[in-house]
Amino acid sequence: MATEKSEKKKLVLLYLRDLFLEKTDATHYVRMPEILEYLESRNVFVDRRTVYTDISILNQSGFEIVGVAEKGGYKYHHPSRLFDTSELKFLIDSIAASKFLTERKSKELVSKVKTLGSSFDNSALNRGVLSPKRIKTMNDKVFDNLDILYNAISSNSQISFQYMRWNSQRKLEPSSKGYTFVVSPCAVSLNDDNYYLIAFDGKSQELRHFRIDKMRTIKLTFEPREGKDVFKSFDIVDYSRKTFGMFSGKEETVTVEAPHKLAGVFIDRFGEAANIRKNFDNPDKFLVRIAVNVSPQFYAWIFGLGKDVKIISPESVKEDFIKTTTDILSNYES
């Protein structure tokens, strides 16, 4: 019996830590009677001196517990948090809004994040805005796939995998007739709420990207990665900026004419890479040179900016844009 009592006393440190994490924060405190009552609820019976000693040990370990004098004694709290309430709200909002997570995984992660706050944060974190009805991926293996891919990059190994696509029955099926891709992983990018693997394809001798939630049976081949010269000059920010909707295309330096009110649109998208200059032929507009991977998604972006925006050069891109829009309009001709 004495041994059991002694063993339970060893748990006081853990119970105290749980108490101060759950019931206190920068503005909430507990007093000695509440501390003793909390320990008794866990069948641990100690005196005040034991609590004082264990609070001192927790402080020495780096877990700060502050005693504040008040009339009749002291009140105690753990004032500092790894994340404050506003930061926890941001994390939860980001999780809830991420469509690469399934609903089940979103709820699981949100529950874990909530444990980083005190019980007083719960009402602030249980906001209806955190459950938007968005399209979510049905693949719950994104995190597992990410682990394999990061392992492949760190171990300098090529990978093999099958790539999937959705069919009209809402089922994933192998694309490219079940072809097994073998590529050299370069980096992982989060773009338009989806995770993508950017990898060097030895057959085409170019960089390609794949949505990670559509990758299946990923395996390390333990063959050394190819494309090291490409990796040395690779800039993931530059790559993402040039690639619209993560659709590949031939890289071109395109000159666009646009009204001054749209300067911010190009700066937001391309940053310092947007080379803006005066348009001496038309002072009401400016010219901007941008390096992009030309694709239908880029054309859609240009089209969405309205009739006052015009591709000036190169002529081949301008003509391809005209052909693309003409082909689309032909679908609506009676």
Please describe what this structure looks like.
It is a single chain. This protein is an alpha+beta fold and 334 residues long. The chain contains 13 helices and 13 strands. A hairpin with a 2-residue loop joins strand 6 (180-191) and strand 7 (194-201). The N and C termini lie far apart (91 Å). The model is unreliable at 128-135 (pLDDT under 50).
Question: Which characteristics define this entry?
Answer:
4-stranded antiparallel sheet; 39% helix; 6-stranded antiparallel sheet; alpha+beta; 334 residues
In short:
The protein is an alpha+beta fold and 334 residues long. 39% of the residues lie in helices and 27% in strands.
* Strands, total number: 13
- Termini separation comes to 91 Å
Q: The biggest beta sheet, please?
A: 6 strands, antiparallel
The amount of helix comes to 25-40%
Structural class: alpha+beta
Strand content: 25-35%
Work out the radius of gyration: 29 Å
Shape: elongated
The whole-number mean of residue pLDDT values reads 84
Write the layout of secondary structure elements.
Elements: H1 2-9, H2 12-23, E1 30-31, H3 32-40, H4 48-60, E2 66-70, E3 73-77, H5 85-97, H6 103-114, H7 122-125, H8 142-154, E4 157-166, E5 172-174, E6 180-191, E7 194-201, E8 206-211, E9 215-224, H9 228-232, H10 236-242, E10 250-259, H11 263-270, E11 275-278, E12 285-294, H12 296-304, E13 310-313, H13 315-330
Antiparallel strand pairs: 1-3, 2-3, 4-5, 4-6, 4-9, 6-7, 7-8, 10-12, 10-13, 11-12
